[in-house]
């Protein structure tokens, strides 16, 4: 019971930790971008043609992805798909799994934001001569993104933390580095504490960065709980009824 | 080599799914107890309480669950504590769930309008009576749907216990995969079983959210 943690012995392995950190960072950056784009396209398709076969399949895929563990999705893509003749590198499988996972969750978040706008406004945009996509983009999508930005931010952080699992298919990320150091030095406590701390800092930094991007995109408005526009339209409706 | 029929695979997975359910239940009950304790701690006026709860949630929500499992399993071993995969998984998942459940419940208590507190104070109710009769009934109502929703995350979280060698559904899947060399079938079945456990809960959460929202208005 009298074990003294020996953190300095980790120092020689700093380059491994840094390399792992870089992998986690680029994986996260790539999949966050792709995942949000995928979510926007998924929501657009399901908004444009809600009853079409493709939209229904998308809806089923979203439910499937939201109700199964990420590690099983990863194993299915990495171990299962090659049986169908689709061989992927570990990194590629990780990128696909993380992107699909983030896209599924954020498309549901976005859909809640889209529903709050109401179909009438999109139609009003069409009536003003905007194309379908223009009306969708300016009238429906951007306000939805703005409204749901905090929730999307947390989802992106959750996917980053979840990416620790990709070490299990031998992607050399931060967790992989921790396991490597642990197996070399037997300093399990030290290496996992340090790695957990690095994840924590990464999560904090990521939240700060995404908040900054949000402020760039939407100004400070997304920080206020109830958007003014929604309030006024609500008041107008009351006044007319 | 033994030949595995589809039924053999499914049967073994179903047997392993019991452990997924057991671990989920333990994590949910343990997480609820710790989360409840944290929520009450947070509501006391004790100066350090709010800070402690914030650091606690930040710590468990800001680090990967996998890291928490590794620390509970491998990290603790160097101090001479011999923990089984069972204990490590149960403890890590309990702490993880408690942080999220505490966060949900704190939000629900804080969402009760301030006027309710003030009204109770005016009526001469003390802290405990205000909680018991005014705040908690309203907060509980709001808490039900997100709590059910989070139980889905707990079930999915237990899949990570496979990494430290706890034989539940995912671990049984990887073991069967090694034995049968049919990864596509095995992992598709594993995913379907998880879906069968999680989807009803997701639906229930959505249903409750819609219903409790309407009546609360």
TrEMBL record, chain B:
InterPro entries: AA_ABC_transptr_permease_3TM, ArtM/GltK/GlnP/TcyL/YhdX-like, MetI-like, MetI-like_sf. This is Amino acid ABC transporter permease. It is found in: Cell inner membrane; Cell membrane. The chain crosses the membrane at residues 20-43, 85-105, 139-164, 184-202. It comes from the Bacteria. Belongs to the binding-protein-dependent transport system permease family. HisMQ subfamily. Its main location: membrane. The lineage of its organism: Bacteria, Pseudomonadati, Pseudomonadota, Gammaproteobacteria, Oceanospirillales. It is a multi-pass membrane protein. Gene3D superfamilies: MetI-like.
């Amino acid at each position: 019971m009298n074990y003294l943690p020996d953190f300095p012995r980790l120092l020689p392995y700093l380059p491994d930790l840094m390399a792992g950190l870089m992998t986690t960072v680029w994986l996260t950056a790539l999949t966050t971008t792709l995942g949000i784009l995928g979510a926007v396209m998924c929501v657009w398709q399901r908004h444009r043609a809600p009853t079409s076969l493709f939209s229904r399949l998308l809806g089923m895929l979203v439910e499937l992805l939201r109700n199964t563990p990420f590690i099983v999705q990863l194993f299915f893509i990495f171990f299962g798909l090659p049986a169908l003749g689709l061989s992927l590198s570990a990194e590629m499988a990780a990128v696909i799994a993380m992107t699909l996972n983030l896209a599924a969750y954020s498309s549901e978040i976005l859909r809640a934001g889209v529903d709050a706008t109401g179909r009438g406004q999109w139609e009003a945009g069409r009536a003003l001569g905007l194309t379908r996509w223009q009306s969708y983009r300016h009238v429906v999508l951007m306000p939805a993104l703005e409204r749901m930005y905090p929730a999307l931010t947390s989802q992106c952080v959750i996917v980053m933390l979840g990416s620790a699992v990709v070490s299990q298919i031998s992607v050399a990320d931060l967790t992989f580095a921790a396991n490597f150091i642990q197996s070399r030095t037997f300093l399990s406590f030290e290496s996992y504490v340090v790695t957990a701390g690095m994840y924590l800092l990464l999560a904090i930094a990521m939240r700060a960065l995404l908040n900054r991007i949000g402020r760039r995109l939407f100004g400070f408005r997304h920080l206020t709980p109830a958007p003014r526009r929604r309030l006024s339209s609500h008041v107008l409706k009351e006044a007319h009824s | 080599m033994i030949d595995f029929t589809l039924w053999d695979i499914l049967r073994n997975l179903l047997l392993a799914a019991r452990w997924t359910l057991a671990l989920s239940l333990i994590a949910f009950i343990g997480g609820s107890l710790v989360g409840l304790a944290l929520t009450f701690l947070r509501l006391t006026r004790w100066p350090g309480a709010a800070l402690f709860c914030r650091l606690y949630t930040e710590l468990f929500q800001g680090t990967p669950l996998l890291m928490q499992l590794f620390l509970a399993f491998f990290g603790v071993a160097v101090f001479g504590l011999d923990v089984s995969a069972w204990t490590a998984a149960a403890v890590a998942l309990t702490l993880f769930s408690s942080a999220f459940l505490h966060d949900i419940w704190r939000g629900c208590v804080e969402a009760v309008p301030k006027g309710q507190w003030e009204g109770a104070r005016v009526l001469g109710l003390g802290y405990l009576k205000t909680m018991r009769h005014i705040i908690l009934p309203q907060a509980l109502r709001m808490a039900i749907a997100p709590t059910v929703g989070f139980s889905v995350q707990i079930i999915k979280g237990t899949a990570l216990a496979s990494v430290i060698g706890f034989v539940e559904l995912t671990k049984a899947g990887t073991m069967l995969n090694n034995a049968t060399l049919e990864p596509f079938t095995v992992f598709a079945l594993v995913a379907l079983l998880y879906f069968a456990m999680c989807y009803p809960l997701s639906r229930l959460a959505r249903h409750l959210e819609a219903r409790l929202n309407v009546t609360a208005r």
